[in-house]
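Before a computer can learn anything about folding, someone has to put a protein's shape into writing. The three-dimensional part falls to structure tokens, numbers that each stand for a local backbone shape. The protein below has been through that process, and both of its lines are reproduced in full.
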Amino acid sequence: MYYIPFLTQIHRRLAPKAYLEIGVRDGRSLALAKCRAIGIDPAFSIRAELDTDVALFRTSSDEYFARPDPLNATDGQPFELSFIDGLHLFEFALRDFINAERHSSPRGLIVFDDVLPRSVDEAARERHTTGWTGDVYSMLEVLSRYRPDLIVLPIATNPTGLLLVTGLDPDNTTLADNYDAIMAEFRRADPQPVPAELLDRLTVLPPARLLATDLLEMLAGSEAGATAADLSPRLHQLVAASLGSGYASAGRFVAVTE
């Protein structure tokens, strides 16, 4: 499945009240939003037709989140769906996740694009291929190690995969507190040490398998005032029952053999 139809179903079933997109480009994915949407991109060039309540910011995500109140544009409504598709370098993806989670609802969902490079060349920090993911793939290991409370689901969409992250905790500062140590370990020189199981897509979910679960409905139906402590046990239980305990256990990934 191509990633746009998959994201279309995410929007429809999650029905977020506020949507964040980092990396707007031509607006194809932003056009999926049916709610108040915030688009951030210093060089967007919109070609898609936008039919929603949208605010576009021609700036970097770092600059946007340095504002006194990044939620001012949503009248204080936390993001319930975020799509991170900005500059394909690990440090930007990490900072975008830290900032997006901090301003998300506990019942929210954050989606990364381009986490499944098809070759080591495609994962290079210095782009030299037509298709390019950069080293965003490192987010899988970082979240697994530093945020075992999260549910982290790599999805084998075409062309280069998505990563769904939920069970969010806006008050958790672990990644920010350990930012320097994470950078020292995971910002690596090319060629990138991409795990073979990612290149082979052995540890990722087929899109249809995720869409067959009730995860999105559980998030959408959660009470507005629910906390991370309220939601996390229920989300982990649902994922374990629907997808197997490996997908709900400390953010670790298991091969899909069925």
Remarks:
- Residues 253-258 have pLDDT under 50 and may be disordered.
- The CA atoms of residues 9 and 238 lie 19 Å apart.
- The domain at 3-248 is CATH 3.40.50.150 (Rossmann fold).
- Residues 228-243 form the longest helix (16 residues).
